[in-house]
Fold this protein.
Amino acid sequence: MYKKKSLGQHFLHAPAYLNKIIEAAKIAKGEWVLEVGPGDGALTDKLLEQGARLIAVEKDARMIPLLKNKYSDVSLYSLTIIEEDILRFDISNHLPQEEMYKVVANIPYYITGAFLKKFLSAEAQPSSMVLLVQKEVAERIVGRKSAKGGSASGGKESILSLSVKAYGEPIYIKTVPSGAFSPPPQVDSAILAIGNISRERFTNLVHENRFFELVRTGFAQKRKLLGRNLEPILGPNYADLLKMAGIPEKARAEDVPLEKWLSLSEL
């Protein structure tokens, strides 16, 4: 079956990388797992082997009968296959109340930002996520140095990196070369794990909303000093507030670590 370019389909079959994903996910028997984009089931097989209670969400209608036929002998207790766009999917309708779950996904590159926002900020957050994403995106999120010796982000923050770190702990697991996929994408990928997902860094919903308002405004014009970007929100005494949060007056948004953004949003 041909892969749909419009869906960003690149199926991973290399056992070494599939095993790395499973290792990073640390799945216990009977644990709920949401798999996004199961495709032809290569990763699904591994997840079922771990004893996961699996909810597999696939957007491509062509794959649904193939998956249901392949797993016809697997009980509904272990596997539920759902045809749906993951960005419209509500996991809470398919889980027992307040039950924890993990996300394991080989997501299309073009939905990475929306996907992370949806699940990290969801009312029903996963406890952890293990994702295959574009290598440069994973490097930017964790601030990892590239294999060529340069820094992928120069130690700089971004709206994406701060948004992920505000909710969890991202770890760059392993680079996955394009040749490990069928068909191969034009760029390399990476296995990214995000652990300990919660809202513990925020005191309440107001604090959470204020944090993201400040971050978005602070990055609105990256060449400007942070204080100048934030003056419309912080007011004429913005320099005093920056100082109280431990942020240098001449700092730019990309130079400020998560903890100081959190301090400023509390102030």
